[in-house]
Specification:
heterodimer; A: alpha/beta; six-stranded mixed sheet; 9 helices; B: mainly alpha; MetI-like fold
Chain lengths: 270, 240
C-alpha cells in the first residue's frame, strides 16, 4: 500500500500558478527524487506536504488517513496541522539549525517538548528524557557526528550542520523524510558527506522525497524520479529510465543542459 | 562647599535615576506592544478579495492594515518631534487647552508628567528596535520549529526569543545610554534633575566646577551601564 498519496495538488501565489494538478504515490521504503529547474515548483510541493504552504486544491493522504483535502474545511484547521506535520520530516536547504543550542539539543528539543504532552510525563520524567537523549546520541552517531554532540552550529561545517539537521528531522520518526535541495548550500567537498548519509538512509529503506540538482545521485539512490517544469509533472518513472532515457522532450532538454553545467544548475530555490 | 555641592547633586541624581528607572520599567513592555502593532497583519477588508470582480480600489482596501497605519503614524510623530516639545505639551497642554492643570504644581505632578512623556517617547524608539530584532530572525527558524510540531508559543520562547534578545542588545544599549542624558530635559518643566540642581552654585556662588561635577555623575552612571551591556553581550556570545 502507498504510504503517501498526493492527488491533484494545486497552488497559486496570486495569479501565478505554481503547482498544477500534481499527483503521485510513494510506497513504503521507496525514495523519490524530484528534479527540475529553479522555479518549477519543486520546493513549493515539499512545502505543501509539510504544511508550510496550504494548497489551493487537492488531497494529501498518508497511510490511508486524509491529512489535507482542499474540499473539506475540517482538514484545514490550524490546530490539527501541528500533529499532521509529524508524518513528515523536513530538511531545509539552509539547514535552519537553532543557533543557541548544541547539536545534541537541536536533535532533542522537539522530542522533549512533545514528551511534555504525554499523560505519564510527570511520573516518568527522568526516564523519558534519558531515553530521548539516548536516541538523539544514537542518531548523531549514525550521522558520524558522535564527537560533535556538544558543539554549537556555528562551530560546525556546513556538511556537519546539515547532518545534524537530518538527525533532528529523524528524531521524531516521521513516516516520510523530505529533503529540500539538501546540498545546494554546500561546497562540493561537503556535498559528498551529506549525500553519503542520505544514501545510507535509502539503503535502510527510509521513505524519502528528495528535491535535488544532483542528477547522478538521483539516478543511483532514488527508486522513482519526477521531472517538474512550470508547475506540472512532465515525466514520472523509474529513476534510471527518467535520467538516462527520458521520454519527454522537455526532460531531455533539461538533462542535456544540466550535463553541460557540470550536473548542478544554480542552487536557487526551485 | 564640596560636600554641600555633592549632597545637592546626589539629590538631583536621585531624581534623574528615578526618571530613568521608571521610564525603562514602563517603556520596555509598552515598546514591545507597539512593535507588535506595527507588525499587525490584520486586514479587516480582506473579504473584498472574495468578490468575483476585483476592482483596483477593492484590492487596495483589502490590503489596508489599520492597526499598522495608526501605530506607524504615532511612531512617526513621536520620533519626528523633540522630546522637549512633547514634555512641554504634556505638562502645559491640559492647563492651556482645558484650563485644567491636571498635574498640579507639586514636584510629584511634574515628575508624573515627565515620566509619561518619557515613556511614550522611548517606547516608540524601543518599538523600532524590537521590530528589527524580531524580523531579523530568519523565517527558516520559525519554519524549522513548525515542521518539528512546535506550537507558536514554543517557537517564540524556545527559538526566536533568545535570538531576538541577542540582536537587540547593541541598539538598546545605545538608546538606554541616550536616556540617561535625556533625563536632563526634565528641567524644562522645573524638575530638579542633576544639572538643574547644580545651577544655584553657578548663579549664586559663581562656581564652574559643579557643572563639571555633574558630568562625572553621568559618566559613572553610563560607565556602569556599559559594563552591564558588555556583560550581557558576552553572556550571549556563545552562539551566532
Amino acid at each position: 500500500m502507498a504510504v503517501l498519496e498526493v492527488q491533484n495538488i494545486e497552488k497559486n501565489f496570486g495569479k501565478t500558478r505554481v503547482l498544477r494538478d500534481i499527483s503521485f504515490e510513494l510506497e513504503q521504503g521507496q525514495t523519490l527524487a524530484i528534479i527540475g529547474s529553479s522555479g518549477s515548483g519543486k520546493t513549493t510541493l515539499l512545502r505543501c506536504l509539510n504544511f508550510l504552504e496550504e494548497p489551493d486544491g487537492g488531497r494529501i493522504v498518508v497511510n490511508g488517513e486524509t491529512l489535507f483535502d482542499a474540499a473539506d474545511p475540517a482538514t484545514r484547521r490550524e490546530k490539527e496541522v501541528r500533529k499532521k506535520r509529524l508524518h513528515f520530516g523536513m530538511v531545509f536547504q539552509a539547514f535552519n539549525l537553532f543557533p543557541q543550542y548544541t547539536a545534541l539539543k537541536n536533535v532533542m528539543l522537539a522530542s522533549e517538548l512533545l514528551a511534555k504532552e504525554l499523560p505519564n510525563y510527570k511520573a516518568n520524567k527522568k526516564e523519558i528524557l534519558a531515553n530521548i537523549e539516548r536516541e538523539a546520541q544514537a542518531l548523531l552517531e549514525k550521522m558520524g557526528l558522535a564527537d560533535r554532540a556538544s558543539h554549537y552550529p556555528h562551530q560546525l561545517s556546513g556538511g556537519q550542520q546539515q547532518r545534524v539537521a537530518i538527525a533532528r528531522a529523524m528524531a521524531l520518526k516521521p513516516d516520510i523524510m523530505c529533503f529540500d535541495e539538501p546540498t545546494s548550500a554546500l561546497d562540493p567537498e561537503l556535498t559528498g558527506e551529506v549525500l553519503r548519509v542520505i544514501r545510507g538512509l535509502a539503503e535502510q529503506k527510509t521513505t524519502m522525497i528528495i528535491v535535488t540538482h544532483e542528477m547522478a545521485f538521483a539516478r543511483d539512490v532514488a527508486d522513482q524520479v519526477i521531472f517538474m517544469d512550470d508547475g506540472v509533472i512532465v515525466e514520472h518513472g523509474p529513476a534510471r529510465q527518467v535520467i538516462e532515457d527520458p521520454q519527454e522532450e522537455r526532460t531531455q532538454r533539461f538533462l542535456a543542459r544540466s550535463r553541460e553545467g557540470g550536473g548542478s544548475p544554480s542552487p536557487v530555490r526551485g | 562647599m564640596f560636600w554641600e555641592v555633592t549632597l545637592a547633586l546626589l539629590k538631583g541624581f536621585g531624581t534623574a535615576a528615578e526618571l530613568f528607572g521608571l521610564t525603562l520599567v514602563f517603556a520596555l513592555p509598552l515598546g514591545l506592544l507597539i512593535a507588535f502593532g506595527s507588525m499587525s497583519k490584520w486586514r479587516p477588508f480582506r473579504f473584498l478579495l472574495n468578490a468575483k470582480k476585483k476592482a483596483e480600489w477593492k484590492k487596495r482596501l483589502a490590503g489596508f492594515r489599520p492597526i499598522k497605519l495608526i501605530v506607524d503614524v504615532i511612531v512617526w510623530i513621536i520620533r519626528g518631534t523633540p522630546l522637549m516639545l512633547q514634555l512641554m505639551i504634556i505638562y502645559f497642554g491640559p492647563g492651556l487647552v482645558w484650563d485644567n492643570n491636571i498635574w498640579g504644581s507639586s514636584t510629584g505632578g511634574r515628575m508624573t508628567a515627565t515620566v509619561i512623556a518619557f515613556v511614550i517617547n522611548y517606547a516608540c524608539y524601543f518599538s523600532v528596535i524590537y521590530r528589527g530584532g524580531i524580523e531579523g530572525v530568519p523565517q527558516g527558524q520559525r519554519e524549522a520549529g513548525e515542521v518539528l510540531g512546535m506550537t507558536r508559543a514554543q517557537i517564540f520562547t524556545k527559538i526566536t526569543f533568545l535570538q531576538t534578545v541577542k540582536r537587540i542588545v547593541p541598539p538598546m544599549s545605545n538608546e538606554i545610554i541616550t536616556l540617561v542624558k535625556d533625563t536632563s530635559l526634565a528641567r524644562i518643566i522645573a524638575v530638579t534633575e542633576l544639572i538643574k540642581s547644580s545651577e544655584p552654585f553657578m548663579r549664586i556662588n559663581g562656581l564652574i566646577w559643579p557643572l563639571f561635577y555633574t558630568g562625572v555623575f553621568y559618566l559613572i552612571f553610563v560607565g556602569a551601564l556599559t559594563l552591564l551591556f558588555n556583560f550581557i553581550e558576552r553572556k550571549l556570545s556563545y552562539f551566532k
